[in-house]
Amino acid sequence: MSLKTRLTPLRWSVLRMAPGFRKLLTTGQVGDGREAAVVDYVLAHARAGDVDDVLATIDKFAYEKSMLINVGDEKGKLLDAAVRRATPALALELGTYCGYGALRIARAAPTAKVYSIELSDANATNARRIWAHAGVDDRVTCVVGTIDDGGRTLNALAKEHGFASENLDFVFLDHDKRVYLTDLQSILDQGWLHPGSIVVADNVKIPGAPKYRAYMREQQGKRWNTTEHRTHLEYQTLVPDLVLESEYLG
For burial by CB atoms within 10 Å, which of 11, 70, 176, 212 has the most? Predict the structure, then answer.
């Protein structure tokens, strides 16, 4: 398939998605059924137990059917590389959506326990079905909640899932961009990160997380060492984006 062929319907998919951005912030879904549709598509077309094929099938759906807001194939390679550098035993994702990001983390760190926080019960159900089909549901767990829900989710991670002082090796931020910084601060306050822990943040340019980016720039060489990766918004090559990869210095 030519680049032109891929981009033309994709631009239309982005336009169709625009009215759903407000819903995303409250429901975690665009509102046109694409999140449920990608699960059915994966179960119908991807080989069971094959993580690579499940990821490729989700990408195919996003290019050819409806755009998805997961990290995608281009930025996913940056995520993969950061996970491999972290060699995590314990990883945390904020923003499960359809389970794509956690699946990439699980593939890049095949012995890690991966926990993903998601505000939407429907998204959690969808992600669990995809993880089960990929064969990683024994080590990838979705916790429904948010970091800023009065301590309920943080307490669950500590009491039910073993999060403890300096044992969190990797964090992927891919949820509400407005709370990247406050949620990271809450994680820091728990004392779970250790020197060498890596935090990756998607969509720092589009939709944008300016307070998070400013914080990382101000803390460069002090508390964090950050690399800004220039890339593109998921599933197209027209809109620039930034992925920040930050190593915690302690």
Answer: 70
